[in-house]
Specification:
The structure is a single chain. The protein is mainly alpha-helical. It has one domain. Helix 1 crosses helix 3. The model has no long low-confidence stretch (mean pLDDT about 85).
Length: about 270
């Protein structure tokens, strides 16, 4: 892989990880577009680490508060504050994702990177995203801090695991689920971004033994360039997505998914 190809990978990852258009789907399609050998899941994972660093930097204060209150949850006698409930719901959603993702992992890696399968996912989950955002009201209050809302966090975490399949989109499926639950776009976006961190870290840990064995070798320099580019582009994407999501909604991203699906069917 050339440096230019790595830069393209980094730009695509930095843009699509936080936009509900499926970063893994775009990365899986890139080898066909660039006429290069598929660098594999390990390289894709490295690109995700770049965007994970972007999340960590952008939401550093929020992450510190979440971690602090996660430890405070160990004190069962203390009062359940809003911040503690936020941490609890993040843990519940992460646990749900982890359990289902482990069950789906092998199947997703074996069959998920097929162009036809990616196209179907782009269309189906794009349609669901459009329906959820267009026909379901937004709550004027923060939903995921209310008592009993752990069930909603559980559902978001459950459906997030389907993002193992390219074309589904991790941010897309979490935003779609949240909007079906009448959670506002802004709250859904922030929850979705923060929820991606444990998923990426967990994926890196699970993939580490295979990478160490050398089953999926890749150029470290190209990989480093891709990670750096995905980090910078990711920071910019987070900032502008949070700024404009209230105004533009999710329909433009659903339309984009349909266009990409049509492109794959006609060209690839």
């Amino acid at each position: 892989m050339s440096i230019l190809d790595a830069i393209i990978y980094g730009i695509i990852q930095g843009l699509t990880e936080f936009l509900p258009v499926s970063s893994s789907g775009h990365l899986a399609l890139l080898p066909s577009l660039l006429t290069i050998k598929d660098p594999g899941v390990s390289f894709d994972l490295a690109m995700h680490i770049g965007t994970a660093l972007a999340i960590f930097c952008y939401f550093f204060k929020d992450i510190c508060i979440l971690l602090k209150n996660a430890f405070l949850l160990l004190d069962f006698k203390s009062e359940m504050t809003l911040n503690k409930r936020r941490s609890l719901h993040m843990i519940i959603a992460t646990f749900a994702t982890g359990v289902i993702a482990i069950c789906l992992k092998d199947f997703a890696e074996s069959y998920g990177r097929n162009n036809t399968f990616i196209t179907i996912n782009l269309i189906v989950f794009g349609a669901l995203m459009w329906v959820s955002d267009s026909f379901f009201k937004e709550s004027s209050e923060e939903v995921l801090v209310s008592e009993g809302s752990w069930k909603k966090a559980l559902l978001i975490g459950f459906f997030q695991s389907f993002a193992l399949f390219p074309g589904v989109s991790r941010s897309g499926i979490t935003l779609t689920t949240a909007r079906f639950l009448q959670i506002s776009r802004n709250e859904a976006s922030r929850f979705s971004f923060l929820l991606s961190l444990p998923l990426i870290v967990g994926g890196a840990i699970l993939k580490a033994p295979e990478i160490m064995k050398g089953n999926e070798a890749f150029d470290l320099i190209s990989c480093g360039v891709g990670v750096f580019v995905s980090f910078i582009v990711g920071l910019l994407t987070i900032h502008f997505f949070l700024k404009f999501i209230k105004k533009i909604g999710l329909l433009p991203f659903a339309i984009y998914r349909f266009i990409i699906a049509g492109f794959v069917l006609l060209i690839l």
